[in-house]
User: Which sequence fits this backbone?
């Protein structure tokens, strides 16, 4: 297991409907998407303490999230993580892919641009899922084949070995989800599959991510792990200029 930091940024590497609610079951989609003011929403997001806190914040932020936050601050984190996933896959099939904490679906769009088509999403917020459901590609096709409302702090009602890969940006951070969710995510990825998770770097250090990854490797659940730096913004929100992130790629044993 390689747990050192890879100095190559993911962006420098070569590239290659209806929403299910409440049950945690993935259902097929038949269609092709905080507080006002992105800075206020981000500070509130970092201070969340419970799943219900998350639901309340994103209920009020979902409709303006892309304009207030993604566009306003030139958010590039999702593209960095998508590029890291494609790089580690190295041409082998990794579909279907589950976007964990998919929000309004920006990482789904980034994967679509990389040629990925079998994309599914999961989020705790029904309002964010509604935004993701409305997200379409340039040809008008829905980016996500299915979407599900679920809480990552609980067991997921998803079959084992269901996905070839999991991707996530913006979910493993302050006030959201920690390394304790990794076992359940690994369970639903098939042998030889890949997880590419964006993790806030300060949160990675404080929440015991490295210790958790070492434990997973020691028990044979990981074949490889690489950690690389990832940009979050091109125009950071005030007070968040020093925020940094990592792209953590995990390869499961075949």
Assistant:
């Amino acid at each position: 297991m390689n747990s050192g930091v890879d100095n190559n940024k993911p962006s420098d590497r070569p590239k290659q409907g209806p929403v299910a609610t409440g049950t945690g079951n993935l259902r097929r989609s038949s269609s092709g998407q905080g507080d006002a003011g992105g800075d206020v929403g981000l500070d509130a997001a970092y201070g969340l303490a419970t799943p219900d806190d998350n639901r309340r914040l994103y209920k009020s932020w979902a409709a303006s999230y892309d304009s207030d936050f993604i566009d306003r601050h030139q958010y590039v984190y999702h593209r960095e993580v998508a590029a890291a996933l494609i790089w580690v896959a190295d041409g082998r099939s990794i579909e279907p892919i589950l976007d964990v904490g998919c929000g309004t679906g920006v990482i789904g769009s980034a994967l679509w641009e990389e040629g990925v088509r079998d994309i599914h999403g999961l989020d705790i917020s029904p309002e964010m899922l509604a935004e993701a459901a409305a997200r379409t590609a340039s040809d008008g096709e829905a980016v996500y084949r299915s979407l599900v409302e679920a809480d990552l702090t609980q067991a997921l009602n998803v079959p084992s070995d269901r996905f070839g890969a999991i991707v996530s940006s913006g979910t493993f951070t302050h006030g959201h989800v920690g390394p304790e969710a990794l076992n359940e995510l690994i369970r639903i990825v098939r042998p030889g599959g890949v997880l590419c998770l964006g993790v806030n770097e300060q949160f990675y250090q404080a929440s015991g991510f490295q210790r958790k990854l070492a434990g997973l490797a020691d028990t044979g659940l990981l074949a490889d792990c690489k950690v690389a730096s990832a940009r979050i913004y091109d125009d950071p929100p005030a007070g968040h200029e020093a925020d940094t992130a990592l792209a953590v790629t995990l390869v499961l044993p075949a």
Summary: Residues 5-251 form a domain with the Rossmann fold fold (CATH 3.40.50.150).
